Amino acid sequence: MKLQNSFRDYSAESALFVRRALVAFLGILLLTGVLIANLYNLQIVRFTDYQTRSNENRIKLVPIAPSRGIIYDRNGIPLALNRTIYQIEMMPEKVDNVQDTLDALRNVVDLTDDDIAAFKKERARSHRFTSIPVKTNLSEVQVARFAVNQYRFPGVEVKGYKRRYYPYGSALTHVIGYVSKINDKDVDRLDKDGKLANYAATHDIGKLGIERYYEDVLHGQTGYEEVEVNNRGRVIRQLKEVAPQAGHDIYLTLDLKLQQYIETLLAGSRAAVVVTDPRTGGVLALVSMPSYDPNLFVDGISSKDYSGLLNDPNTPLVNRATQGVYPPASTVKPYVAVSALSAGVITRNTGLFDPGWWQLPGSEKRYRDWKKWGHGHLNITRSLEESADTFFLSNRL
Fold first, then answer.
1. Span 18-38, mean pLDDT?
2. What is the per-residue pLDDT for 397?
3. Are 53 and 76 in a shared domain?
4. Same domain, yes or no, for 244 and 202?
5. How much is the pLDDT for 53?
6. Which of the residues 67, 131, 170, 330 is marked catalytic?
């Protein structure tokens, strides 16, 4: 019977332990090397890149909208000016449930379905972490009511802005025009013209009339504020500010009182009147009736109001003074008469008897005058007084 050795081979176990410890040490050394290499890459090699990214997250450029230029009449009366309005804004990324917040705001600031629809439309085309208007032109009561309940609405705040205002309503719409919210077409046009950056803080743009034609003059230059923010996006301190440059004021040749007087004469009719200064050619009045209130468009006109204007049989949206096409009729007779006298085609003594019609030689067709029985004897003076077509036709004028 063979006896079993009761002594363990500690030398073999020791060698195995050493090998395992060496492998573990090498593994730890390798992982430590990888970690150090990554730290070196982040802290040394790519330091500038990550520092820039960090500053971009910490330092923000906040654009500051310029004040739009004022439009005056010839006597220095402001026809289009700016007034402070308050609007409630929301940053959706800071709100837990946007729809619940909108529903809760209904009773606080009298939010309507149109307001909510406009908010959703604006949100769809806005960048992340951008404050989006929820309701504009808040009353003092609405501002106070929200201030009391603001603790209920994180991510929602009231801000004050300068907004365009037309103090004389419909009196000058077809001349001054109006500003309204910037839409996608405006963005594309501004981007194409290289002007989009100058509208970073601007919500409105000239859409019609003087406001549109002189947009570059009236708008001004956008400024900016460099601020430091925390990880929640809240401003900690201001680092730098470049003040915006206000738009230039414009003085027109229009006379407000004359404009309003003509409007009272044309009240209830569809007509247009243009009054010019014969010495300078300046337009003193340009009236198109009926008209409409341009203030409806500043904050975005409702579908109901726009449909009312669009379907109005009196077509108030049409500028009859510039867009209307009318036959000159007898208004050209004085100019034709002066030209004929100057050219010697007729004289002051040229005359004829008017039977009430004129017949084209070689034709049986007769062109009748407005007075069927004729004007009798006519000369150039009486033909203008009577607006007699036969005198001008007979003399080939």
1. 84
2. 73
3. no
4. yes
5. 57
6. 330
231 close to 52: Cβ distance less than 8 angstroms: no
CATH number of the domain encompassing residue 100? 3.90.1310.10
Number of domains the chain contains: 4
pTM greater than the 0.85 cutoff: no
| Three-state secondary-structure class, residue 289 | strand
The pLDDT score that the predictor gives to residue 373 is: 87
Model pLDDT for residues 236-288, shown as the tens digit of each residue: 777 888 899 999 999 999 999 999 999 999 998 999 999 999 899 999 999 99
Please report the pLDDT score of residue 316 as a whole number.
93
237 and 334 in a common domain: no
User: How far is C-alpha 284 from the chain's CA centre?
Assistant: 27
**DSSP three-state, residue 72:** strand
If asked whether residues 266 and 247 sit together in one domain, one would say no
Alpha carbon distances (Å) from 238 to 63, 100, 151, 285: 13, 34, 25, 49
In a domain, 348, yes or no: yes
What is the spatial distance between Cα 100 and Cα 97, in angstroms, rounded to a whole number? 5
Average pLDDT estimate for 203-209: 92
- Do 327 and 192 contact (CB within 8 A), yes or no? no
**DSSP result, 162-228:** EEEE-TTGGGGHHHH-EEEE--HHHHHHHHHTT-GGGGTT--EEEEEHHHHHTHHHHH-B-EEEEEE
pLDDT at 212: 95
Q: Are 127 and 203 within one domain?
A: yes
Domain limit, last residue, from 251, 275, 301 = 251
Give residue 49's domain range: 21-57
Q: What is the pLDDT of residues 130-180, one digit of tens each?
A: 788 999 889 899 999 999 999 899 889 998 888 899 999 999 999 999 999
Query: Is 330 an annotated catalytic residue?
Result: yes
Residues 159 and 295 in one domain: no
Residue 263, CA distances (Å) to 73, 172, 285, 288, 309 in order: 16, 10, 10, 8, 19
Residues 33 and 80 in one domain: no
Tokens of 76: 């220095």
Report whether pLDDT(9) > 80. no
* 316 in any annotated domain: no
Angle between helical axes of 98-109 and 140-149 (0-180°, round to 10): 130
Mean of all residue pLDDT scores within the chain: 87
Residue 190 lies in a domain: yes
In whole angstroms, what separates CA 316 from the centre of its chain?
21
Same domain, 302 and 161: no
Inside any domain, residue 281: yes
